[in-house]
Amino acid sequence: MSGMAIVARHALQEALRRRVVLIVAVLTVAFGGLYAWGTAELFQDVSGFQDASSGLDATALAGSTIVGLAMFGALFLGAVIATFLTAGAVRGDAERGLLQPMVVRPLGRTQYLLGRFAAAAGVSAAYVVVVYVTAVVLVGLIGGWWPEHPAGAAIRLAGGAVIVAALALLGSVFLTATANGICIMMAYGAGLLAGLLGAIGDAIPSATLQHIAGVASWALPFEGLYRDALRLLVQDVPGVTGAIVQLGPLGGSHDAGPLLGPWAVVYAVGILALAALAFARRDL
Amino acid sequence: MTALAISGLHKRYGRHEALRGVDLEVGDGELVGLLGPNGAGKSTLTKIACGLVRPTAGTVDVARPLGYLAELFRFPGWCTADEVLLLHQRLTRSDGGGRERAELLELVRLEDAAATPVDAMSKGMQQRLGLAQAMIGGPRLLLLDEPTSALDPGGRRTVRDLLVELRRRGTAVLLNTHLLSEVELVCDRVVIIDRGAVVASGRPEDLERPRGVEVELASGTRTFDGAARPDVPGIVAGLVADGEEVYGVRVLRSTLEDVYLDTVADVR
């Protein structure tokens, strides 16, 4: 087993033994129950809205909106998990004295970082996908609405969580666990806020707001991936319904173009390389 | 063969110079005590030796495999003692298996605590577990930074026995400690460091100096300051010639503590 795999396994073991996984699972099941109940109520309420003359497809409106909500929730919770698993990975663990006994072993600092990243990114990405797929299945079974491109949206959401994990790991080299956690959550909030501004910019329309959202999508690609996932969710919804759901209550959908995926990969690798460089130069 | 060779080592933290050109060697199987007051640069030197801190200048050659016990360390509270050792076996690629872990736990007198979580251990037990962890994989060089700081007298005795055992196995040890009595008892050589520089080094017995001769007489005890062993016959002859009755003579030598305090005081 490589050093990276040993560190990743140790981090996953810690998450299991400290009951992080159990608590998250229990809360997620509770969330799933409430979500299913809400979905059932929603579809029951909108069943009378069907109006052929207005062109409004109530099922598509309700389905895409409630799945969009689940996507927002899944990515948010995935980001929280990624942040918690990595916020103290370097400076926090070094200050507590947990890091030193490990890194003097024939384990490169880069391997240590990659191990922590693999564990956090793997857990948070898997969590996001599980929550998203569960929501899609619940909405499909309860309301009879299925998105056109469920897999593409899942991949983008998982990518968003991976990028948050990389950013939190970089922050952990410089900041204490608490400061890093706050910083990452604020960056996450700022990204989503920029996405909402973009949605407003699309509706008004305002080139300035659209520009702000565009810059945020590239600077914080988890935001771009989230909006692109929303795009995949609603791009095939036609007519008035399509226009409404594309604005979305939790950030509008946005097509960032074919370069977003490669950029997200380059971004994550670049952030990890920066973290490895900074960690290599850090006195412990 | 040299297990640790440090040459011209400098370390600067901003405007503070923690190490100022330190040269130090630890031979294979040698047990060297590193002494010095707080802030002298001992921990910085140890951390540089094991790669936790980057030197500003100078060279460090370290024999591998290397074992290290930090002054301030923690193991994950959710791990048992056996799991901590297992993790470090994996990291060091040690193939010692359960037998090595059991042997090390026995060596630090934690054989009954293999399944005890770190959170449930006393500070002294964790310190002894730290020592066992440092010995995983049979290191050629062991860097111990204040290994007895949290130990009671019994625990210190365990560490002392352990150091003797390490010497028997041929493991080189650099022991950073404030406990001069431990160093005096077990170390082959002592290096005293102050304000980032080596101010004295040598075998403990070579560093000790004569402090006079104490003579027990019928009229009481008289001390001849500055006198040494060769002066004893002359002192006794003179006292007898003066009509004194001599009941005992003791040559006084400085302890390592005296040497240490004198050396550090001289520098200051």
Averaging pLDDT over every residue of chain B, what do you get?
A: 89
Individual helix count of chain A? 12
Radius of gyration of chain B: 23 Å
The total count of strands of chain A amounts to: 0
Q: SSE order of chain B, as H and E?
A: EEEHEEHHHEHEHEEHEEHEH
Q: Determine the fraction of residues in helical runs of chain B and give it as a percent range.
A: 25-40%
User: For the report, how would you describe the main beta sheet of chain B?
Assistant: 6 strands, mixed
Number of helices of chain B: 9
- Number of beta strands of chain B: 12
Q: List the quaternary state of the chains.
A: heterodimer
Task: Give the largest chain-chain interface (CB within 8 Å).
Answer: A-B, 21 and 27 residues
Beta content of chain A comes to under 5%
Characterize the overall form of chain A.
globular
Regions of chain B with pLDDT < 50 over 5+ consecutive residues? Answer: none
Describe the main β-sheet of chain A briefly. none
User: Within the largest sheet of chain B, what's the order of strands?
Assistant: 5-6-7-3-8-9
- Give helix % range of chain A: over 70%
Termini Cα gap of chain B: 35 Å
- Mean pLDDT across all residues of chain A, rounded? 89
Key descriptive features of the protein:
heterodimer; A: 284 residues; mainly alpha; 12 helices; B: 268 residues; alpha/beta; six-stranded mixed β-sheet; three-stranded antiparallel β-sheet; 31% strand
Briefly summarize what is shown:
Chain A has helices at residues 3-17, 20-46, 58-86, 91-96, 100-103, 109-143, 150-174, 177-203, 207-219, 221-234, 239-247, 260-280.
